[in-house]
Input
Amino acid sequence: MQRLQILISVLCALLGAANYPSNQESNPASACALAVAVSPDGSLIAAGYDGGDVALLDATDGERVYLFAQGLGFAPWALAFSPDGRRLAGIGHDGRLRLWTLPGNLEENATSTELLNAVPAWEWDSWPFGITMTWSPTGRRLVVADHDGRVSLWTSSGDVVKRWNQNDPATDETVIWTRDGSLLLIAEGPLVQLRDGVWGELRSEGALVGKIRCPQRVVAMAIHPREDLLVTGHADCRLMVWSLRTGDLVTEGYFRDPVMQEKSDEIASIAYSPAGDRLGISIREGCFVFVLDPKRLTSVWSSEWLGAHFGEAVRILWSPNGARLWFAFECGSGDLYWVAPKDNAEPKSRENTNVPTFCGEVGAIITGGTVHAVTAEGVLKW
Output
């Protein structure tokens, strides 16, 4: 594990992480940022660094306002604020989940809870999927899943509620919450499993149970932000849209590499726009991004060929106002693109940058190991 941290530090240095802007000189001295999160009110950015430090930055100017006395101890996989902003969850490469209760006054000490064995320690063969960690919309529960299908459900106070194994996991986009947080939807090969959002128990009754069955394994999912619709992406580049009330198939379509089709191609990432009027998808291998009409599943805009990248997924995200679509190779070693998707729109790009994290109009990105605030239009604030 120590060897892993050293290698990460070297990689960050090669990306230019040592050249910090002046307003970040108060951050941990050896810092190469690997994970960020934005507080629900948009006032704070949490940043996790390669040595395990976790800090809170002022979203206005980037100044460090708090450094957790005991960070993650290992390089971070992910950070996430609870919906009420009172807690911060973090998980490191050692597989240990930690929860911090934020102090009312940032000059005071935060309380922390260390939760062992959320997932096993990080392994090289987990790249590029790794670990996903998501709060329920109510903030009552936190779900953690890894690339081998080990899933755990936690309370906001740090008690484990349920553990189970997800069969045949494909990516880290196969465990998602319904909009009200009452259900967890879990991809199980070609099936979508329903679990109770409070206790994690399998649902055995209801209109949806056992009805969402697909010809190919599910590799990505997304829920419509306003309607009771689920879209599933599959290993044969098929998209299928389902009713979350009845479990019936609404529509489907195929989206393959338009230049050079390969048998290993599959849907990589799916995201509805905030209004639900557009659907963004990416495909793996020969990497493309499409924006679709979500009702007809017809293409509204498509990127140029982004190049093959060792089977790595292209992560996509809509800006909060829905005006722009962001996409980048998942590990952050490629370029970040953002575009107002319409006919002949030309994306803008930034080298060695990950897909941002947004809360409201405040976004945070990592460029070459350095944390920046970014607007929904792609302008760096600091």
Notes: The chain has a mean pLDDT of 83. The two ends are 33 Å apart (CA to CA). The longest helix spans residues 2-14. Residues 1-125+352-382 form a domain with the Thrombin, subunit H fold (CATH 2.40.10.480).
